[in-house]
Design a protein that fits this description.
Bound molecules: S-adenosylmethionine, glutamine
CATH class of the largest domain: Alpha Beta
Structural class: alpha/beta
Largest sheet: 7 strands, mixed
CATH superfamily of the largest domain: Vaccinia Virus protein VP39
Strand content: 15-25%
Helix content: 25-40%
Length: about 280
């Protein structure tokens, strides 16, 4: 016998969020941190849980991304804590990690992850390279706190060092891989981002300045002294900025670079340095 109260809550979610019954059940299950089949198991739900669910459904109705409402999200195989005010990792960044994984002869020992956010990139790379040591920076206090929790949850405190600073300020070691998903949306395009992004995600994480490459330039210039010979700089970028980036690199005498497409066919990644023995897939 299905619990009436839970059924009412699921029905409320169907109506208010304009989702299917199955979707509503999944949302309620993730809010309660239970598998979907368990949500109807008790005959009734207590007052506290009912209030909790109503409040969370209201946040969703107001357009808050589910990740901020549940305070958890999935990045590849990793279940991460996320706090409102911290950038929600995207599918394109999961694909970025897959591209790095394809550089089969490239096994970095030291990695610098700039603008780590939740710590997603660092945590994935720490698993990909079991002996690597990573320095992860972010300017945002909230991001650093969130990354710290995730790094601790994955038992990586000894291998990922967090630094609250701008870009790589205060870093004094050298790296084989310098990676970043920096803010890269040109300021003039911020207004056209989805409402949930504009209303809830931090612009500090997204606004790439007038031409969208303000941080790309700063990262390339400021990290140059910290790249080991044979090292690689890998950056997530916006497709509209490819030409400007190319001009910038050529003007600065860099000719060893390539752009790669994401899983949706858009140029999304810039690799600087020599990529040897790449298992090729979706490569221009
Ligand atoms: N790496 C995470 C990911 O892929 O999900 C977060 C990427 S988010 C697009 C960009 C991050 O850069 C944000 O966490 C933001 O706080 C950080 N950031 C912005 N300006 C920065 C700066 N000057 N120095 C370091 N980090 C910065
Ligand atoms: N791809 C993100 C978005 O569209 C922006 C990411 C970034 O600036 N690094 O919201």
């Amino acid at each position: 016998m299905v619990s009436k109260k839970m059924r009412e809550i699921v029905e409320q979610a169907v109506k208010e969020l304009a989702v299917s019954r199955g979707e509503a059940e999944l949302i309620v299950a993730s809010l309660l941190e239970k598998p979907r089949f368990e949500i109807y198991l008790n005959d009734s739900i207590d007052q506290e849980s009912r209030q909790f669910l109503r409040a969370k459904l209201m946040q969703l109705k107001n357009g808050m991304p589910l990740e901020y409402v549940t305070k958890r999200m999935q990045f590849m195989n990793y279940s991460l804590r996320i706090l409102p005010g911290v950038f929600i990792p995207r599918f394109e960044t999961e694909y970025f990690i897959e591209l790095i994984e394809k550089l089969i002869d490239f096994v970095p020992e030291q990695i610098l992850d700039i603008g780590t956010g939740t710590g997603a990139i660092s945590i994935a790379l720490a698993h990909l390279y079991p002996d690597v040591h990573i320095v992860a920076t972010d300017i945002s206090d909230k991001a650093i706190r969130c990354a710290r929790e995730n790094i601790k949850e994955y038992g990586l405190t000894d291998r990922i060092q967090l630094l609250q600073c701008s870009i790589c300020n205060g870093v004094n070691t050298r790296f084989d891989l310098i990676i970043s998903n920096p803010p890269y949306i040109p300021s003039s395009r911020l207004h056209s981002l989805p409402k949930s992004v504009r209303d809830f995600e931090p612009m500090l994480a997204i606004d790439g300045g007038q031409d969208g490459i303000q941080f790309i330039k700063l990262i390339i210039e400021q990290t140059a002294p910290y790249l080991n010979p044979g090292g690689i700089v890998a950056l997530e970028i916006d497709e509209d900025t490819v030409v400007t980036i190319k001009e910038f690199l050529q003007t600065n005498g860099c000719d060893q670079f390539s752009f790669r497409r994401d899983q949706f066919g858009k140029y999304r990644y810039l690799f600087i340095g020599e990529l040897k023995n790449e298992k090729s897939r979706n490569i221009n």
